[in-house]
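Hi P.,

Sorry for the delay on this. The queue was packed all week, but I finally got your sequence through. Input first:
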Amino acid sequence: MSIHAVDPVYSVSALNTSVPPSVLPSTAQRPVSGVSSSLVSIVSQSSTQQAGGLLQINVPNQPNTYIKAGSCFLKFTATFTTTTLATAACTIRGANAAQSWSSLILRATMSCGPNILEQINQYQVYDELLNIHAGSVGYFNGNMAMLCGQPIITAANAASGSTYAITVCLPMNFGLLNSSEEQHFPLGLLNAGLQFQFNKSDCKSAYASKSLVY
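Then the structure:
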């Protein structure tokens, strides 16, 4: 490994020629020490929610703490219960064009105390656009399908009251948490922690199914 030391180049106007370089901003890289990262799982403050409900998660404030860009996910278990007798096997998927379970989220809000930092209405449409039009084919067919695009396959002739569950891991697509330049979110600089609220969609817009009535 080679290490090259490059002296910073300054551009000083004629009016400031007497300013010594030692007091001007330096573009030289500074070493960063004492940095560590950890994976944190934060439990929701909400109980089990039905369609149209509200899910809330509080993230406490800690000094000298940052949220790594692109590292936030919403993990939950979605449960479906049949209300009639099935006449054939059925496949249940997310109702948006990407067939992602982000269709379960109608609105996502990120707040700090009384201040709303970011709010995404029609979250399922926003997530669909990111996956189909802004994402890669490899991610769409690989990671997205594995994390939040898995279908639920019901049994043929399933009795009324049959329950099916699936665990979903949705990327939290807030712009503040997903800087393309990997600028991490300064959680430790906030006066209060973060609050995340997710309004759930109603049943008709949350999923698509065939051959089975819910």
